[in-house]
Amino acid sequence: MAKNLGPSCRLCRRENEKLFLKGTKCTTDKCAFMRRGYAPGMHGQRMRRKASDYAIQLLEKQKAKRIYGLLERQFKNYFKKAERSKGVTGEVLLQLLERRIDNVVFRACFAESRAKARQVVKHNFVRINGRKVNIPSYLIKVGDEIKIKGSDQQLKAFRETAKVLEERGVPEWMEVSAENLAVKITKLPTKKDIGMVIEENLIVELYSK
């Protein structure tokens, strides 16, 4: 499966905004965005030009893609699914992205970043309603129970990670037991649960052209 292999910190610098792609490193002095808060490349330190409406819409779409670690085709498929669903397209799109199981593992503080959460899923640590799921794009639903499985040593490492990340907090749409490494989905996520500013209306305008 295709994936982004370039440096994560360059993506934050390109967006001129912290996307928190590298977990706890993003909150330390080692964060490249804090040390070099300008766009990457040889012309990165030049003054940014005023962006056109199309450029603003494109940048917002790119930002959402990078936050959730998706490629263009994957992201567009989510948009098409949101268009076919009931409700406001932009809000449904954000809800679909939040419902990915790799995002749930990240949100539950069992992984430092969504990239690491994706590895957790692909390496067969996740059970949903007792069934093994190793597809990061699997969409959870209300009532689902997610549990981390592994050896005693592996589970100890997950608990230590959860303890380190507990200050990050978990969204209201899930109930998390860090000790049991379990999550229960109590309701579907909404825009206010995302924790980052994504102007979904700009993405809808871009794809609607």
Main attributes of the structure:
Ribosomal Protein S4 Delta 41, Chain A, domain 1; alpha+beta; five-stranded antiparallel beta sheet; 209 residues; Structural Genomics Hypothetical 15.5 Kd Protein In mrcA-pckA Intergenic Region, Chain A; 8% strand
> How is the CATH topology of the largest domain named?
Structural Genomics Hypothetical 15.5 Kd Protein In mrcA-pckA Intergenic Region, Chain A
Give me the count of strands. Answer: 5
Query: How many domains would you count in the coordinates?
Result: 3
Largest sheet: 5 strands, antiparallel
**What would you call the structural class?**
alpha+beta
What number is the mean pLDDT?
A: 86
Task: Supply the CATH architecture of the largest domain.
Answer: Roll
Strand content: 5-15%
Query: Radius of gyration, Cα only, in angstroms?
Result: 18 Å
Helix content: 40-55%
> What strand order characterises the main sheet?
2-1-3-5-4
**CATH class descriptor name of the largest domain:** Alpha Beta
Distance between the termini: 29 Å
Unreliably modeled segments: none
Shape: globular
Q: Name the CATH superfamily assignment of the largest domain.
A: RNA-binding S4 domain
| Number of H/I helices | 9
